[in-house]
Amino acid sequence: MAIEVVTMPQLGESVTEGTIGEWLKKVGDPVEKYESLLEVATDKVNAEVPSPIGGKIAKILVDPGVTVPIGTPICEIEVEGSGAGQEAAAGVTPAAETLANAPAPTTPPVTAGAASSAVEGRGRFSPAVRRLAQEYGIDPGQIAGTGAGGRVTRNDVLRVAQEKPASKPAAAVGTAPAPAPAAASAPQPAVLLESAPAVIDEGDIVQPLSSVRKVIAERMVRSKQTVPHAWLMAEVDVTGLVELRERIKDEFKGREGISLTYLPFMLRAVVEGLRAVPEMNAQWNNDSIVLKKSINIGMAAATDRGLIVPVVRNADQKNVVGLAQATQDLVRRSRAGRLTLDDLSGGTFTVDNTGAVGTVLTYPVINAPEAGIVTMESIVKRPVVVGGMIAVRSMVNVCLSFDHRVVDGAEAGKFIQVVKKHLEAIGPDTSIY
């Protein structure tokens, strides 16, 4: 028998750490290669992690709720034979004697006095880290980083800034600092603020937060605190879309084996909007804006474990039928907890079908670092003026939250108008292929 170590995998673009959710196997359990091993939550994805090797669980090194950097050993698996050479490509490493007896790893502490030589192997600091460190007068070379390979992150700088509350932005070399206005105060780091504690009365039920709910809460607070949200809405006449769906939905289900909802039509309209306004298919990158080549649309989905956002990849290469198949597959696997890491990463824009729960107007929170999120509200019949006359039409509100650092109202308005035009152009005879 040989012992192999499984490490925390890379769980998405720019992800440096993950939080252990629930172990799906316990010590002594057999596990097949690619069988789900545990649940992991990060600031970008929540997913089940497959085992990179088959064998028997020998030891669990990290408890649920603990956050560790990418590459940290999280469990040991006992395998037949030596296996070290064969399994190296699968992301596991032989267990050293000291590692086998070590306690569960924790995120390294951040200190301001670490020797600068400790960061020589971390590579260059990102522009965002350098700028933030300069603002608070901190030498990033003296910070013990918690990122992959000991890399210093923005959060590391902010933690050190918190430890030095008297820190002020560094003045330029050779110049005297300008006197501050009477009402001014030193800038504070953009840390996540905690809400006032709840008042717990007799009979109240206190539910501990699941790891997924913790990540959702942190992600939403961070988005609202760091992204300047702007919002607009358009009324859309989808009478033709409603008539088309009513005409073909039974035939479609018999032929394709799935229900035809309004979501794939909305996704198709959003694709047209992103093509017309590529600035909306972008991500904020602190000192730059990244225009994404691929159009990968995340679709917010509610599950019994919380909100997740699986991604329809290359949505621009799919017609309505292809989008219907892709969304139904993602929804089905979301509810069954069978999504892969690939299903939950790489999104460039998000769509939320809030109308499914009966809403007519919402203000969605942006899934940072994306530039926008759009909602499709409930379709309702309302009297509207058409050609100078009042008629009863099927109307829907389309709401857009956008990152005002990336785009202005002109681009956001153009985007939502393209979405509106595309939806209103659908009629009873429109092809879905």
How would you portray this structure in words?
This protein is of the alpha+beta class and 433 residues long. It folds into 3 domains: 2-100, Beta Barrel (OB fold (Dihydrolipoamide Acetyltransferase, E2P)); 116-163, E3-binding domain (Dihydrolipoamide Transferase, Irregular), CATH 4.10.320; 215-424, Chloramphenicol acetyltransferase-like domain (Chloramphenicol Acetyltransferase). It is 25% helix and 24% strand. The strands form 5 sheets. Strands 10, 13, 16, 17, 18, 19 and 20 form a 7-stranded mixed sheet that branches. Helix 7 packs across helix 8 (320-335). The longest helix has 18 residues, at 239-256. It is globular.
Q: How would you summarize this macromolecular structure in one to three sentences?
A:
With 433 residues, the protein is an alpha+beta fold. The protein has helices spanning 84-87, 97-100, 127-135, 154-163, 211-226, 239-256, 263-276, 320-335, 409-424, and strands spanning 2-7, 17-23, 30-31, 36-41, 46-50, 55-60, 67-69, 73-79, 92-94, 229-237, 282-284, 289-291, 297-299, 301-303, 306-308, 311-312, 349-352, 372-376, 380-386, 389-403.
The residue-averaged pLDDT reads: 81
Could you describe the largest sheet, including whether it forms a barrel? Answer: 7 strands, mixed
Number of strands: 20
CATH architecture of the largest domain, by name, is 2-Layer Sandwich
CATH superfamily of the largest domain: Chloramphenicol acetyltransferase-like domain
Query: What class would the helix/strand composition place it in?
Result: alpha+beta
Q: Number of helical runs? A: 9
Would you identify the regions where 5 or more consecutive residues have pLDDT less than 50?
83-123, 166-189
Tell me roughly what share of residues is in helical segments. 10-25%
From the alpha-carbon coordinates, what is the Rg to the nearest angstrom?
Answer: 25 Å
